[in-house]
Amino acid sequence: MSKTISIDGRQVEFVDGQTIMEAAAAAGVYIPHLCHHPDFTPHGSCKLCTVKVNGRNCSACTFPAQEGQEVLNETDELREDRRMITQMLFVEGNHFCPSCEKSGNCQLQAVAYYLQMLDDHFPLFFASRELDASHPEVMIDHDRCIFCTLCVRASHLDGKEVFAISGRGINKHLIVNSPSGKLQDSALEAGDRAVDICPTGAILRKGIGYRVPIGKRIFDLKKIDAVSLAEQGGAHGE
Amino acid sequence: MICRLAKAERRIQSAKAATLAGIDSTNHSEITLMYEQLETAESSDNLRRVAVDPVTRVEGHGKVTLLLDADNHVRQARLHIVEFRGFERFIQGRPYWELPVLVQRLCGICPVSHHLAAAKAIDQLVGVDPENLPPAADKLRRLLHFGQVLQSHSLHFFNLASPDLLFGFDSDVAKRNIIGILQEYPDIGLQGVKMRKYGQEVIRMVSGKRIHGTCAIAGGMNKSLSREERDYLLEDIGQILKWAEQAVALIKKVHCSNLPYYDQFATIRSHYLGLVKSSGALELYHGGIRARDRQGGIILDHQDYCRYNEIIHEQVKSWTYMKFPYLLSLGSEQGWYRVGPLARVNICDRIDTPKAEAARQDFKAHGDEPMIHSTLATHWARLIEVLHCAESIQGLLHDPDVLSQDLLLQGEKRCEGIGVIEAPRGTLFHHYQIDENDIVTKANLIVSTTSNNQAMNESVRQVAATYLDGRELTEPLLNHLEVAIRAYDPCLSCATHALGKMPLQLELVDASGRVIDRLVRESDGMLQRSLADA
Ligand code: SF4
Ligand code: FES
User: Fold this and answer.
1) In chain B, which residues have their Cβ closer than 8 Å to the Cβ of A134?
2) pLDDT one digit per residue (tens) for chain A, 238 residues
3) Is the pLDDT of residue B61 over 60?
4) B98 to A101: CB separation less than 8 angstroms, yes or no
5) Which pTM does this prediction carry?
């Protein structure tokens, strides 16, 4: 007999070793998330996937599913918390959706729509972060980095360790593993998994922005809860 | 008939004006600013200052200041415009492919023009010159542009200008707006709304959104029209064409029924500049630069706009942030010119669509000079362009290329790109340089309204000298200043005249800077006089 947990009262099957996120995804239940990607080791840093398990807050992407768990996902309280987390992500960086080429393919934007985030709520930080366009094919707009570490994990899988997160709190930033700290001197190549993994518009392929017309972009066609996890990772404009 | 009688009368007037101003009618380099003495008063001692200072939104900020002496004689009149400050700076440091999307966000009035001018510039950055752009991309961009000009011109004529033209410049201010038009002339008002909407639908179908689409990309377009989209647009084009013809007939009637007045109001005799096709025909999307002098003589023709730096320079004046462009060959005194509908219809040899061409011939025939200088005739020229847009849209919708998927070309990278387009308000220049990492290092833009800066100032001075001089200022009189500015449809017009409801504040300031009187037009159109220093 298969094991089950309940998510918002619905019985969801799981196998041992699965996280709540994995069990939910397999059953087609959407739990909002940003730093999670099925292909990489869970990191549990964005906290967007926070659910209540038997009354306690847990990150669904890291918490193992166990027989009989009562999981709450779509509650007003959790929705409100998630919206606040998303607002914080927005004000911490510089996210100008109207002119951003990732618009329509961006998970941060799509999650914000899903959570019905209508304003920033918090004062903007106006962070001053540099753009690294030194690489001939790939660009980093640090303004849009949300420190999800997906590129770090993807580059690890590429066997290159091009990216890392350095510093803590407000000083946290993405660093590039090269003598100059610039992307052009790193081992990054256009074929790397890390190039297409960024959920926001921080890491981009150069020169192809806006090639997908409005109406044909990933989240023009489906809301984020209907897009599979694999489709979301590396959602890009091409 | 009316036209012919009035013509004779006007001929005498313009001859008088020419004599007064000492205009030599044979040499195009001799062009005189008739009211230049009003640009700067000899001394501002004992003069009162009147500021017409509309509260504006984001697109720009315009105000008129008048200096009056004790007898209300106008001693100085200036139009100040502050816009696009910091614009060129703002886009530095961004990757070039963002430009068409970034720049259109900075202008809420004609975003498509900026989108396309920037796209033409970045085509060159990826090694694609205009003649090499895939035909489908070229035609879709033209379609988009015709849609934009159609909606912008319709908005301007029906919503902003028609209240002045149909009710009179000094009519009841409470009625002098689009709401008044809809009540009194419901058919005309509704046609305006629908024509604008149609232009916006063209934009939406081509670019994905009614405003701020993302269709033009370096080297082409990101989508073509589907059959359904094409058929949807074809449904109404016949009706739009008919209304455009009626609008031309209407403006002709309005203009000719008061010809002497319309031909002299705010009128200045200027040079004209714009793009033309290689055949010399009217062109809005891509062509060479042509300039004609006030007698219609060619100053320069079919010039490659990538050399605009050798043709046009910009002069800076201490009292305004707006520069004054001029033709280098004629110098800063003589070389100023006008751009926009009047300029385009004046400089072209013909229009490639039959109905608009007939309208152009009719338009040119109403004057007795090779060039039409009447500032208010700009409205007429604008509607001829609307007709041309409607005809061109119809033609393009029947062209199978707009359904083609062959939309993109890429060539050798370059570090400099220049895009020039005829925006609704006139020639628009975008010029960018990028570094080896694709990042914008330099940007220079000359927007249409800037090119009309000198001309608008001269028209303002003409109106101030003709109508306001020596009289107690009232709202209708001040509206005359705005009518003159509005004819140019400057970028600030949207901000200052949206539905005629923007609050206006006029202040009388004495020589020591003390405000001695204040006239406020509330957003409901009511006037209130409040004494200052309270
Ligand atoms: S660059 Fe993108 S993938 Fe990497 S940490 Fe930042 S947001 Fe995540
Ligand atoms: S998705 Fe679970 S913490 Fe980010």
Assistant:
1) 437
2) 689 999 999 999 999 999 999 999 999 999 999 999 999 999 999 999 999 999 999 999 999 999 999 999 999 999 999 999 999 999 999 998 888 999 999 999 999 999 999 888 888 888 888 899 999 999 999 999 999 999 999 999 999 999 999 998 888 999 999 999 999 999 999 999 999 999 999 999 999 999 999 989 999 988 998 887 666 554 433 3
3) no
4) yes
5) 0.85
Query: What is the third-level CATH fold of B87-454?
Result: Cytochrome-c3 Hydrogenase; chain B (1.10.645)
- Domain end call among A46, A74, A102: A74
Does the beta carbon of A31 lie inside 6 Å of ligand 2?
A: no
The per-residue pLDDT for range B391-431, each reduced to its tens digit, is: 999 999 999 999 999 999 999 999 999 999 999 999 999 99
Pocket of ligand 1 (CB under 6 A): A 145-151, 174, 197-198, 200, 202-203
Domain assignment of residue A221, yes or no? yes
Look up residue A149 and give its two tokens. Answer: 């570490």
Q: Check whether residue A102 and residue A201 sit in a common domain.
A: yes
Question: Domains of chain B: which residue ranges?
Answer: 87-454, 504-534
**Which CATH number covers residue A226?**
3.30.70.20
Would you call B217 and A209 a contact, using CB atoms and an 8 Å cutoff? yes
The beta-strand segments (E) located in B413-526 are 416-423, 426-434, 440-446, 504-509, 515-521
- Taking the C-alpha atoms of residue A156 and residue B466, their distance in angstroms, rounded to an integer, is 77
Domain end (from A33, A48, A74): A74
Atom number in ligand 2 closest to CA A59 = 2
Residue B12 has a pLDDT of 39
- Local structure of B130: helix, strand or coil: helix
Nearest-by-CA chain B residue for A100? B98
A15 and A133: one domain? no
Q: How many CB atoms lie within 10 A of CB A222?
A: 12
pLDDT tens profile B146-165: 999 999 999 888 877 777 77
ipTM of predicted assembly, 2 dp: 0.88
| Exposed / middle / buried, residue B288 (Cβ in 10 Å: 0-12, 13-18, 19+) | middle
Strand, coil or helix: A223: coil
Q: Where are the alpha helices (DSSP H) in B71-185?
A: 87-90, 99-104, 111-125, 135-154, 162-167, 178-184
Ligand 1 pocket mutation pick from A129, A148, A160, A177 by most atoms within 8 angstroms of CB: A148
If we measure between CA atoms, which residue out of B89, B200, B201, B204 comes closest to residue B152?
A: B200
Domain that holds residue A26: 3-74
Pairwise CA distance, residues B62 & B491, whole Å: 9
Instruction: Compute the mean pLDDT over every residue in chain B, rounded to the nearest whole number.
Output: 80
Q: Shortest Cα distance from B304 to chain A (angstroms)? A: 27
Across the interface, whether the CB atoms of B208 and A211 are under 8 A apart is answered no
Does residue B480 contact residue B293 with C-beta atoms inside 8 Å?
no
Ligand 1: which residue has its CA nearest to atom 4? A151
